[in-house]
Amino acid sequence: MPMIKNKLSIEQLQQRVHYSGLATRLSLLGLIGLLSAWMLWISPPALANPITIWLVLTLPLVGFVPAIFGGRARPHIWLCFVILVYFCSGVIHAMTDKFMLLGLAKTMLTVVLFCSAMMYARWKSILQGMESPQSPTQPPSV
């Protein structure tokens, strides 16, 4: 059973990749669901078209759904960059009286999403490196 520097076997890495991927998918869908419920049902904006605001908020996340469910590591990295905006928005809403609970829920979902996507990308790249080692005739890639 091959081991890596931190003494994890391939099976342990596969298990971590599986669970972090599951957490990423669930928290991404949860964040999309929360934003949808918030904009369309709980507190639709009074001065703007709620459908337009909903589309602006959810389309960036919905665009990641096929790639995240496809299991590639690079989209997980890009998702970490994109959800920082949602984290900032959640913190701002958590500081208001009217939307404190929704803001806290949004902040917690983005924290879970960020951490799980980051760890998925890390563990998936380590696992791919272990499963497909470079041939000795090729120079190591930088």
Would you give an account of this structure?
With 142 residues, the protein is mainly alpha-helical. Helix 1 packs antiparallel against helix 2, helix 1 packs antiparallel against helix 5 and helix 4 packs antiparallel against helix 5. This is DUF2069 domain-containing protein.
- Write down the Rg: 19 Å
Helix segment tally: 5
Identify the overall geometry. Answer: elongated
- Tell me the helix content: over 70%
- Assembly context of the chains: single chain
Q: How many strand elements?
A: 0
Total number of distinct structural domains? 1
Low-pLDDT residue intervals, each spanning 5 or more residues: none
Query: How far is the N terminus from the C terminus?
Result: 27 Å
Would you list the SSEs in sequence order as H and E?
A: HHHHH
Structural class: mainly alpha
Mean pLDDT over the residues: 89
Let me know the largest β-sheet.
Answer: none
Strand proportion: under 5%
Protein name: DUF2069 domain-containing protein
Keywords: Membrane, Transmembrane, Transmembrane helix
Pfam families: DUF2069 (PF09842)
Relevant terms:
142 residues, mainly alpha
Brief sketch in words of this structure:
This protein is mainly alpha-helical and 142 residues long. 75% of the residues lie in helices and 0% in strands.
What is the fold's blueprint, element by element?
Blueprint: H1 10-42, H2 50-62, H3 65-70, H4 73-94, H5 100-131
Transmembrane segments: 21-41, 47-69, 76-95, 101-121
Keywords: Membrane, Transmembrane, Transmembrane helix
InterPro entries: DUF2069_membrane
